[in-house]
Amino acid sequence: MGWVLDALDAVAVLGAGVAAGGINTIVGSGSLITFPTMVALGFPPVVANVSNNIGLVPGSVSGAYGYRAELKGQRERLTRLGSASVLGALAGAALLLGLPAEAFKVIVPVLIVIALVLVVVQPRLQKWLQARREVHRPHGGPWLWVGVLAAGVYGGYFGAAQGIVLIAMIGIALDDELQRLNAAKNVLSAIVNGSATVVFIAMSFLADTRIDWTAVLLIAVGSTVGGLLGAKVGRRIPPMVLRGVIVVVGLVALVNLLLD
């Protein structure tokens, strides 16, 4: 089943896709643009959430591609953490299709607040941990894997601000440049969105899960362009400025959720 979009509605969804793709690449929280836009246009929340998740996958891939220079030397790290993202995303997608839509309304703002606090204190906390770390763990150790798994569950269920959660965790656990960590975040987000998409498409055949493919196409085109543009902008942002952007976007996301 699909919802007929007039020309202005289609432009709005396409524009939201461009903005979401760019924001996801630089920070995260792009879904807080596309999802409310679709709901405002009359899409049922679950249909909007599923269609939005699928449409943002190409944008996640294009954003990761835009950061390909910063991804050099991270294959083993991303393979290890990517396995957690896949498992978490599959679980989160299953929760979305099996639980009431209100299930995460209380916990999502809490997750964003925790993530923003972690982003702010990350430099000092990272130095403190490194000074007491007996063994260097290039992949962050088991606790980071569990954290990425939890972020994958969250991302598979809703996805907004999962980039903020991811970059906060890996920024504390890994000793690396922020731009390289942001590149890793983009890959992990792409893995989460892609894995959840597999579940959503499969369930559309098995259990009549509704997907609006017109909206998917519009968001996919927009987010692909936005992802490439976001990578060009994000790679030029100094670490301190990037950290500030992350906090600002996170606060806007939090306000939007609390006012919803």
Kindly describe this structure:
There is one protein chain. The model has no long low-confidence stretch (mean pLDDT 83). This protein has one domain (7-259). The chain has ten helices and no strands. It is an all-alpha fold and 260 residues long. Helix 3 (45-66) packs parallel to helix 9 (213-234). The longest helix has 29 residues, at 178-206. The relative contact order is 0.24.
Blueprint (SSEs and pairs):
Layout: H1 7-26, H2 31-40, H3 45-66, H4 75-98, H5 107-132, H6 141-157, H7 162-173, H8 178-206, H9 213-234, H10 239-259
Helix pairs in contact: 1-2, 1-3, 1-9, 2-3, 3-8, 3-9, 4-6, 4-8, 5-7, 5-10, 6-7, 6-8, 7-8
Q: Biggest sheet, in brief? A: none
Task: Give the tally of β-strands.
Answer: 0
Mean pLDDT: 83
The poorly predicted ranges are none
- Could you tell me how far the N terminus lies from the C terminus, measured between alpha carbons in angstroms? 26 Å
Shape label: globular
Number of helices: 10
Helix content: over 70%
Structural class: mainly alpha
What letter string, H or E per element, gives the SSE order?
HHHHHHHHHH
Number of domains: 1
CA gyration radius, whole angstroms:
17 Å
| Beta-strand content bin | under 5%
Question: Summary?
Answer:
This protein is 78% helix and 0% strand.
